[in-house]
Amino acid sequence: MQEANIDHISVIDIDVYLHEKGFLLEEGAPQLLDEKVAAVHVSTHGGDIHNQIRKSFEDRKWITRFDYIGNFYHCDGKVVDSLQFDRSCNKDTPWGSVYVRDGLLTFINPKFM
């Protein structure tokens, strides 16, 4: 972003299976996001990754808009073959019951509000 002289990005949507931390938490990334990005939406692929990303953004005072930890092949404590058809994999949201396999996190940068 700095090399291309980009001063602002409205939204970054990331789904990089198990590499979320590399994009969001590695050296220099948090500072660049804080400076240039208004919103980040990320699909997470593990509970530890999900929690580490949430903590990093919250520690930097970003506003958490959505936070749904994924099922990651388990719903109601059992391994399921076809997650989309198992209602226990759904999460209650303001829009009703939604199927959630990957974790979902959305953050808003207060700098751009």
What's this entry about, in short?
With 113 residues, the protein is an alpha+beta fold.
Describe this protein with a few key phrases.
113 residues; alpha+beta; Translation Initiation Factor IF3; 4-stranded mixed sheet; two-stranded antiparallel sheet; 23% helix; 34% strand; elongated
Description:
The strands form three sheets. The chain has a four-stranded mixed β-sheet, with helices on one face. The protein has a two-stranded antiparallel sheet with strand order 4-5. With 113 residues, it is of the alpha+beta class. A hairpin with a 2-residue loop joins strand 6 and strand 7. It is elongated, with a radius of gyration of 15 Å. The model has no long low-confidence stretch (mean pLDDT 84). Helix content is 23%, strand content 34%. The protein has a domain of 77 residues: Translation Initiation Factor IF3, CATH 3.30.110. The protein contains three helices and eight strands.
